[in-house]
Amino acid sequence: MSRRPYDRTLRDEQARATRARILEAAHRLLLADDYQNLTIAALAESAGVSVQTIYNSVGNKAAVVKAVYDVMLAGDDDPRAMNDRPEFLALADATDGPSMLRAYAALSRRIADRVGPLLTVLLTNSDDDVKAFAATIEAERLRGNATMIGHLVRRFGLPAGLGRRRAIDIVWTLTSPEVFDRLTRQRSWSANDYERWLGDAMIAALAQGSREESPPPT
Q1: Residue pLDDT, tens place only, 28-44
Q2: C-alpha to C-alpha distance for 144 and 179, rounded to whole angstroms
Q3: Measured between alpha carbons, how far is residue 177 from residues 27, 112, 164 in Å?
Q4: CA-based, 20 to 30 A from 57: which of 86, 98, 157, 206?
């Protein structure tokens, strides 16, 4: 006798709930105790599951950390890449270059708000797994930057003399987690100030024929 469809639906829902509980517990432990102190055993106890359940649901410690980052980055556990999400795809609908760059600054600010505290903990670590994680997320971030520049080039072009590769490098640098951390945590800028500055900087460097101004950060 075949199993009824709702049996699988229930199992899938339970698996998603278990995975979410594991990732929420891992996020709490990472922010409270640092990467070095996160163990699968401690995570299992905090999440109220077995060690084997963590391996089955998420994977090893490195996989757990990457999964936590991905959820914080996107704001949910939807497996779609950021480039395929509505908020990113909407950039292509901008009416001009400065509007597209302002929208990208707003999106970058929301992402930095979500992942900034976690990255502050992780990227100060010298562990080999963290180094591999950092290389992975930088490559992902670079692809996202390149996609945005591709939209900008196709719709509005770049300033004379500025090539696509150099434009990608500029955005990759301006939107880096280190810049967000320096300005907001170390220099006490508000997230609004950061977003405004980021939009200004990208417009000044990348918007064809534009020098849009806004009030300086306070």
Answers
A1: 999 997 888 899 999 99
A2: 17
A3: 18, 7, 22
A4: 86
Q: Find where tokens 């359940």 sit.
A: 53
According to CATH, the topology of domain 1-78 is: Tetracycline Repressor; domain 2 (1.10.357)
For residue 39, what are the contacts with CB-CB under 8 A and spacing of at least 6? 61
CATH 2.40.10: does it fit domain 80-212? no
Give the orientation angle of helix 128-156 with respect to helix 164-174, to 10 degrees. Answer: 130
Other CB atoms within 10 Å distance of the CB of residue 21: 16
Full-model pTM: 0.82
Parts of the chain belonging to CATH 1.10.357.10: 1-78
Contact 144, 83 (CB under 8 A): yes
Q: What percent of the chain has pLDDT over 70?
A: 93
What is the SS3 assignment for 210?
coil
Confidence of residue 209 (pLDDT cuts 50, 70, 90): low
d(CA 149, CA 165): 9
Name the E strands within the chain.
none
Sign of the Cα pseudo-torsion (80, 86, 92, 97, in order): negative
The contacts of residue 171 (CB under 8 Å, 6+ apart) are 104, 145, 148, 149, 202, 206
Q: What is the largest CA-CA distance in the chain?
A: 70
